[in-house]
């Protein structure tokens, strides 16, 4: 709760100071921030971070694929193990897809 209160108070102070400073001061701060962002030292670090992330992200899809593949294989194995074969009916041939219709046609059904 204290953090939220401090955030709201900071936002209010920033708003008040920003409105008092006006558009001209905003443009000065924006130009200063752009100058810092475009400086060679900052851009060198930006490129280093981009290269690091690109290197690590290249490894992530492969790791995700391997993990998901292992999970699916294990789930399929468990499902196969859990399935029990249906008990066979003694003395009756298994019904075919049209077994009911065939039984009625032959006069065996009701």
Walk me through what this model shows:
- With 110 residues, the chain is mostly helical.
- The protein contains three helices and no strands.
- The chain has two domains: 1-38; 40-81.
- It has helices spanning 2-37, 40-82, 99-105.
- The longest helix has 43 residues, at 40-82.
Total helix count? 3
> Ends: how far apart?
75 Å
The ordered string of helix (H) and strand (E) elements is HHH
**Helix/strand/pairing category:** mainly alpha
Can I get a quick summary?
The chain is mostly helical and about 110 residues long.
Structure keywords:
110 residues, mainly alpha, 2 domains, 3 helices, 78% helix, Protoporphyrinogen oxidase
How would the blueprint of this fold be written?
Blueprint: H1 2-37, H2 40-82, H3 99-105
Protein name: Protoporphyrinogen oxidase
Organism: Leifsonia sp. NPDC080035
């Amino acid at each position: 709760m204290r953090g939220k209160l401090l955030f709201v108070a900071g936002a209010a102070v920033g708003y008040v100071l920003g409105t008092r400073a006006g558009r001209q001061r905003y443009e000065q701060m924006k130009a200063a921030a752009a100058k810092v962002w475009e400086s060679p030292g900052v851009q060198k670090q930006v490129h280093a971070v981009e290269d690091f992330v690109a290197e690590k992200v290249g490894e992530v899809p492969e790791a995700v694929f391997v993990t998901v593949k292992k999970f699916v294989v294990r789930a399929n194995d468990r499902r196969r193990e859990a399935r029990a074969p249906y008990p066979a009916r003694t003395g009756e041939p298994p019904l075919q897809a049209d077994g009911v219709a065939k039984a009625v046609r032959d006069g065996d059904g009701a």
